[in-house]
Design a protein that fits this description.
The chain is of the alpha+beta class. It has helices at residues 3-13, 18-37, 83-91; strands at residues 42-44, 48-55, 58-61, 68-71, 74-81. Helix 1 crosses helix 2. InterPro entries: Hist_DNA-bd, IHF-like_DNA-bd_dom_sf.
């Protein structure tokens, strides 16, 4: 499912105009991005949690030349799946093709 499909699904599920559903989804995503950018944690019970992982700098290698380079420290978003979601996904039987 992509974002436009999510918007369409929301609009159909709650009988909501598609433009308003799009604005709602955009607002939720923007709020989550802003929260993570500020270094805060997001927890959605039954779904999972979003946080930031910090990585220290380290020495890497250029794959073409083999030259050592310093990789700068960085922060990346991280998702940890919730117990209910994990159990529900695990319980679904794969579809035979």
């Amino acid at each position: 499912m992509n974002k436009s499909q999510l918007i369409e699904s929301l609009a159909l599920e709650i009988d909501f105009p598609t433009p308003k559903a799009a604005a709602l989804i955009e607002t939720i995503i923007a709020t989550m991005i802003d929260t993570l950018a500020q270094g805060e944690h997001i927890e959605i019970r039954g779904f999972g949690s979003f946080g930031i992982k910090k990585y220290d700098s380290y020495t890497g290698r250029n794959p073409k030349t083999g030259e050592e380079i310093l990789i700068a420290p960085k922060k990346l978003p991280f998702f940890k799946v919730g117990k209910e979601l994990k159990e529900r996904v695990d319980a679904v039987e794969p579809v035979e093709e």
